[in-house]
Design goal:
Blueprint lengths: L1 E3 L11 E6 L3 H10 L1 H4 L8 H19 L8 E9 L2 E9 L5 E10 L6 H8 L11 H18 L5 E10 L4 E9 L5 E7 L6 H5 L12 H13 L3 E8 L8 E10 L3 E10 L3 E10 L8 E9 L2 E12 L5 E12 L4 E16 L2 E16 L2 E19 L8 E11 L9 E15 L2 E13 L42 E14 L2 E10 L1
Parallel strand pairs: 1-3, 2-4, 5-7, 8-10
Antiparallel strand pairs: 3-4, 6-7, 9-10, 11-12, 12-13, 13-14, 14-15, 15-16, 16-17, 17-18, 18-19, 19-20, 20-21, 21-22, 22-23
Helix pairs in contact: 1-3, 4-5
């Protein structure tokens, strides 16, 4: 290491500017975060004696800052000058070669030594023989072992030996870990502190039983399930390792109830609907069995709706509900008009990460679409599955959604027309940088029928509008009749690619390409 410090003719108190050459990326950021003289740059004035003291420490600090990336033979040329009322500290860094890993020896002992999860964790250890030594990889590998043990219920697991040996003569590094899993713990009794709903309803949300091997995953799932329910505003699921009876860990669930009623009023404007307004009321807890109900009224230039529902939780299945609903709608987009009365019964439940819905809907619809007029009576069974995964509910930067639905009706079985429809929709979201997202969307559909013009517009496929092919009027794209009126079709293909940039809070700009018909 070489350093130059000029003699100044008297005390010179001034700001400090640091120049760093020879390192880039994460290594550069770590050096700048470690350099004491760089951290002093936030001060308006630094004394000459302090600048020289910090400058003399800089080569050693640079060396230490690069060691976590495997650089142990770093050379630094340093220079400190007083220029134009500013101290300029310059450092030219030659990191030198990186140490390579010559040995990775990881041994699991204890009851869990034969667990496949530990074997997979070892196989995916971030460092392998021949790799450059990166300390973060070593630490991440240890964390993965700890997380695996916690996930499998080995709560007393600990490292019997954890060594990262660096040999500067051979310029190699060795990883030597011995991890003792200890005994495997089981779930103990679970207790809830809320008395607002029946215990059986709460227990139906629990995905584990007393005596089963302890795992963090079902605890997180329980917290998510209860948190997503309409009954509680805050949920805490706490494994009480300190109260363990032998190898059984009791679980406490602390619940804060929501308000029993919710009222919501909204006004807005949409390119599809024009001015619009809505009023909704929800009764979250009608009794201790968790029954709930709600009603909604909405109106716009093209749509008026009123609907109500009654929901009954199913204690026989996890997160299952049975609901009945009824409603009326008057729909008047430019291509059609309809008066719709409907009633439905629905059973919804979770299957793994998927949400499954089985429904039976009876629909009466008086309609005019193009030159077609009619009255549709449809008794429609349907089955749908949906899956949603996102890192944030309000502004996701990573995630996706997929929805599949099958429905139909048979003439003579409560219906005056026959058809079968399959729908598939999906959306993917990815992040390019902070606030910049890429969104892809695909909607597919197909209907099998020989009586398309006897089906109401609610069953036919249309495109156009701000949730479909943007730049076209709502439901203005589709096959036409002999008079040129859009009457909807039997198949649907819509695709979209969008790039959006968040500007401030919930405001942003977007560019998109939509295609479909």
């Amino acid at each position: 290491m070489f350093s130059m410090v000029p003699h100044s003719g008297g005390a010179q108190d001034a700001p400090v500017r640091v120049r760093l050459e020879g390192v880039r990326g994460v290594e550069r950021r770590n050096v700048m975060a470690t350099l004491s003289i760089a951290l002093s740059g936030s001060e308006r004035v630094v004394t000459e004696s302090r600048v020289q003291r910090l400058h003399s420490r800089a080569p050693g600090e640079i060396n230490l800052a690069l060691q976590p990336f495997g650089y142990y033979r770093t050379r630094v040329q340093s220079d400190l000058r007083y220029e134009r009322d500013v101290w300029v500290a310059s450092y030219a860094v030659d990191p030198g070669p990186r140490i390579t890993v010559s040995l990775v020896d990881i041994e699991i002992i204890g009851e869990g030594r034969e667990q496949e999860a530990f074997k997979r964790t070892i196989e995916s250890f971030p460092l392998a023989v021949g790799d450059p030594l990166v300390h973060a990889g070593y630490e991440m590998g240890k964390i993965r072992l700890i997380n695996t043990a916690s996930e499998l219920g080995y709560l007393d697991a600990r490292f019997e030996r954890r060594e990262l040996r660096v040999d500067l003569e051979s310029y190699t590094a060795e990883v030597d870990l011995v991890y003792d899993t200890g005994p495997r713990f089981n779930f103990g009794p679970i207790t809830f502190d809320a008395a607002i709903v029946d215990p059986d309803l709460l227990r139906s949300s629990v995905g584990f039983r007393q005596g089963e091997p302890f795992s963090v995953t079902p605890l997180l799932e329980l917290q998510s399930t209860l948190g997503d329910s309409p009954y509680f505003s805050r949920v805490e699921v706490i494994p009480r390792r300190d109260l363990a009876d032998g190898l059984e860990v009791p679980v406490e669930v602390h619940l804060v109830p929501r308000k029993r009623q919710r009222y919501e009023f909204g006004v807005g404007y949409g390119t599809n609907t024009g001015p619009r307004g809505s009023l909704e009321v929800e009764f979250r807890r009608l009794n201790r069995r968790g029954h709930r109900s709600g009603a909604q009224v909405s109106a716009s230039f093209i749509e008026r709706r009123v609907s109500g529902r009654y929901v009954i939780p199913l204690t026989s299945t996890r997160s299952g509900v049975f609901s009945v609903a009824a409603g009326y709608a008057r729909l008047t987009p430019t291509t059609s008009s309809s008066d719709v009365l409907l009633a439905s019964a629905t059973v919804g439940q979770s299957r793994g990460h998927w949400q499954e819905t089985i429904a039976l809907t009876f629909q009466l619809e008086d309609f005019v679409v193009g030159s077609d007029t009619g009255k549709a009576n449809l008794l429609m069974p349907s089955l749908s599955w949906s899956l949603t995964d996102a890192d944030d509910r309000l502004f996701p930067t990573r995630g996706g959604r997929i929805h599949m639905e099958v429905l139909g009706a048979v003439r003579g079985l409560g219906s005056n027309a026959s058809f079968g429809t399959v729908k598939l929709s999906g959306k993917l979201i990815g992040s390019l940088s902070a606030g910049t997202r890429v969104l892809g969307r695909l909607d597919l559909g197909g209907t099998v029928t020989s009586q398309l013009r006897e089906l109401p517009p609610s069953i036919r496929f249309f495109t156009g509008g701000d949730q479909s092919v943007r730049g076209y009027e709502f439901r203005s794209l589709g096959p036409v009749d002999e008079f040129g009126n859009v009457i909807g079709g039997q198949t649907l293909v819509v695709a979209s690619l969008e790039l959006d940039q968040r500007i401030i809070r919930r405001w942003g700009v977007a560019g998109f390409v939509d295609v479909g018909n």
